[in-house]
Description:
Number of strands: 4
Strand content: 15-25%
Number of helices: 3
Shape: extended
Structural class: alpha+beta
Radius of gyration: 22 Å
Distance between the termini: 49 Å
Order of helices and strands: EEEHEHH
Largest sheet: 2 strands, antiparallel
Helix content: 40-55%
Amino acid sequence: LDNSKQAENVILIDASNLGEEYQEGGIKKTRLTQNEIDLIVDTFINHKTIDDFSVAVTYDALQEKKCYLAAGQYFNIKVEYVDISSEEFLRRMTAYKEILNDRFQKAHKLEKGILNQIGEFYAD
């Protein structure tokens, strides 16, 4: 970080959705393409604000958030309203509930597996 304040705003970039995943050994990694690197550099140099990617933040706003530098913290929240019937709403909620229950069951299974492995480690 630089205290010279040569610009009125700080440009924060969230590049977490960029890159292509690949395996190296047993480790999953992500690498940026040249176009993605160019986008990041161009955005930074030209102080561009791009929805859900970069944001210009004032120094005061940074201080208010205790210098928290995660770009997503400063993105504008977009709410899209969709007019649906009560039947469609209930259908969607039922589907979401089923998905959530399935994920909870998988999470509990993982928790039990982890606890069992820890127990086996200490049993030796």
